[in-house]
Amino acid sequence: MLVNGEKQRTVAVMDRGFQYGDGVFETIEIHHSTPLFLAAHLARLVQGCQQLAMPQPDMGLIRREIAQLCLQVDNAVLKLIVTRGEGGRGYRQPEPLALTRVLSVHPLPSYPQAYYDTGIVARFCQTRLGLNPALAGIKHLNRLEQVMACAEWSDETVQEGLMLNLSQHVIEGTMTNLFYAKQNVLYTAPIVDCGVAGIMRAWIMTQSFPVVEQYFSAQTLREADEIFVCNAIIGIWGVRELAGRCYPIGHLTQKLQHALAGEKQKQVAYANI
Amino acid sequence: MLVNGEKQRTVAVMDRGFQYGDGVFETIEIHHSTPLFLAAHLARLVQGCQQLAMPQPDMGLIRREIAQLCLQVDNAVLKLIVTRGEGGRGYRQPEPLALTRVLSVHPLPSYPQAYYDTGIVARFCQTRLGLNPALAGIKHLNRLEQVMACAEWSDETVQEGLMLNLSQHVIEGTMTNLFYAKQNVLYTAPIVDCGVAGIMRAWIMTQSFPVVEQYFSAQTLREADEIFVCNAIIGIWGVRELAGRCYPIGHLTQKLQHALAGEKQKQVAYANI
After folding, report:
1. Where are the beta strands (DSSP E) in A84-225?
2. Is A218 exposed, middle or buried (0-12, 13-18, 19+ CB in 10 A)?
3. Which segments of chain B belong to CATH 3.20.10.10?
C-alpha cells in the first residue's frame, strides 16, 4: 500500500477523505501484471477531479506508482484513491492544497466460476439512489447509499442487489452496471442524475451491438430476454434469476463475455511487447 | 486526539470512513470545559447509527472520553466521529464488526464578534441538495454536496451559502440551519428529503416562539422581516445581507441569541454543581 508514495497503511484523521468523503477512487483489475483498461480508469479519475473542482493529480506519478505495484503481483485488484488532502476551514478546501494519493493492492475476490458460467441471482433493493446530478457518473467516496443497499440482505445465495432511482427506474447494481437484452437490442439506464458511469459499461457500449440508453422499470426488466451486470473486476455476469423469475444466459451475454476475454488478452499482450 | 481510546492522529486506509464515508459525526462546543447540548448530540449520533443500520457504539465509553478531553481545555470544539470500522466485502459490512471512534479537540474558529452582533452576508449556492430520504437529517460523513457548495465562492466578505433542494426550496446553509421571521412567526424548512436536523435548530424550536416547518422559495426568503442561521458552534448569527438585499438584526434573532447565552451559562453551571 502506498500513501503519497510512502509504504504505510494509515491516513491522517484530518484527511478530507475521512472527514467528508471528499475524493474519488478507481478499482482496477491487474491481470498478468497488467492494469486493465488503465487509460479509461485514469480518464475517469481526471473527470471526477474536475467535477469535484479538485486540481488534477500528477498523473505521470500515479502511472509510475501503478507500474511499480503491478510488477509485484500477477492477478490482483488495485484500488486508487485521490482525496482533497488535509485541512481547510470546515468544508472549504485549504489553500494551498495537497492532494492525498493512496494506491493499494488486494487479492482478486474469490467468486465461484459458476457466477461467470451460469449466472448469478439478483434482487431488488429498497434503498433508492438519490437524485444528485452534480455527483452523478463519477466514482466519489460518498458511498453510503451502496452500503445501505448491501445491508438489506444477508442471504449468500443472492449475489447482487439492483437499485432504483426515486422515479422507480432501475439504474444499476450496488457494485455493477446493468444491461438487459430484448429482441437483440441492449438497454441500459442513462447515468445522468445518479449512478456510476462504469468503465466496463463504457467498453460494452463500444462493441458492435446496438445499445439504447433509456430509463426502464422493474416490470420491463422482468420481461427481458437476458440480463447481465458488469464491472471492472467481475467483468460480465449473466443474471440467471431475479425476483423469483429465471433467465437464460443468452447469446449476447456470452458474446460480450467472449469479446471481453479477448480484449483482456490483447491488453496483456500489448503491455508486454 | 483519541482514535479508539489511543492517542494517535491517523486511521487505517481500509477504514470504511475513508473508503466510503461510512459513518456519522457530531461537532460539539466545549464552553468552560463543559460539552454543550451533549445529550442532544449523543442522541443524534445514536439516531444516525440506527438510520445507517450500524450497531450503537458504547455510549458510556464515549461519554468518559469526552469528559477526559474536556478537562484539558476551556473553550474549544470537539469533533466526534464513529465509523463502521475496517473491512467487509466491498460495500457489505464485515462480521464481526468493530466500530472506529475518533474524538478530536480543535480551537474554536476565530469569527469576528461582528458576525454575532451585526450579522453576516449570505449568498445562494448553485449546488443543490440532492433528494435522499434515507440519509436526510443525520450528520453522516458523505458531505460532498457541502464541499462543492463552499467551493462556489472565495469572496471573504460572504460568510455563508444557502442551499436549495432540487425543487428550488431553500433548505439550509452549507454549515448551518436557516430560519426567517415574518410577522413574528419563525419559519424553517422541513428536514425530510435532505439536510441536517441541527442541534441548534432543534433547541430553537423548543423556545417560546411559534415556529412553522414548511418549504419556502428564495423569493419568500427575500421578503422576510429577519433571517438568521445557526449551528452548535456559531450559535445564532443574524443575516444582514442576502443577495444584495439588507435585513435588520431583528428582535426575534436577538431574543434567541440572549436565550441561548443564558442556556449555555445554565449548562456550564449545572455541570459544575
Report:
1. 100-106, 120-124, 160-164, 170-173, 177-182, 185-188, 211-213
2. middle
3. 113-265
Distance from the B6 Cα atom to the nearest Cα atom in chain A, whole angstroms:
13
> Residue A229 and residue A93: Cα distance in Å, rounded?
37
Amino acid at site A148 = M
Alpha helix locations (H) across A151-195?
A: none
* Rounded Cα distance, B32 and A168, in Å: 51
CA dihedral sign of residues B15, B21, B26, B29:
positive
Q: Which three cell numbers stand for residue B69?
A: 478531553
- Domain A113-265 classification at class level: alpha beta
Instruction: Tell me if chain B has a CB within 8 Å of the CB of A150.
Output: yes
| Closest to B150 measured CA to CA, from B142, B140, B160, B141 | B160
* B172 shares contact with chain A (CB less than 8 Å): no
Identify the segments of chain A with pLDDT beneath 50: none
Cβ within 8 Å of residue B161, ≥6 positions away: B122, B123, B124, B125, B149, B150, B152, B153, B173, B174
Do A106 and A15 meet the contact criterion of CB atoms below 8 Å apart? no
Q: Looking at residue A14, what DSSP letter applies?
A: T
Distance CA B49, CA B117 (A): 37
Q: Which long-range contacts (CB under 8 A, 24 or more apart) does A205-209 make?
A: A207/A256, A207/A259, A209/A184, A209/A252, A209/A255, A209/A256
- CA atoms within 13 Å, Cβ hemisphere of A130: 26
> Is the link from the previous residue into B94 a cis peptide, with omega within 30 of 0?
no
| Percentage helix, strand, coil for chain B under 3-state DSSP, each rounded to 5 | 30, 30, 40
> Does A172 participate in catalysis according to the annotation?
yes
**pLDDT of A133:** 87
Indicate the pTM of the whole model: 0.96
- The one-letter code for the residue type at A67 is A
Per CATH, the number for A2-106 is 3.30.470.10
* Active-site residue flag, A27: yes
Comma-separated ranges of CATH 3.30.470.10 domains in chain B: 2-106
Determine the pLDDT at residue A39.
97
Catalytic residues of B: 27, 139, 172
ipTM at complex level: 0.96
Q: What is the pLDDT of residues B251-268, one digit of tens each?
A: 999 999 999 999 999 999
Strand partners, B188: B213
Comparing alpha-carbon positions, the chain A residue that sits nearest to B150 is A92
Can you give the pLDDT at residue A97? 93
Give the integer Cα–Cα distance in Å for B216 and B228. Answer: 15
What is the per-residue pLDDT for A87? 87
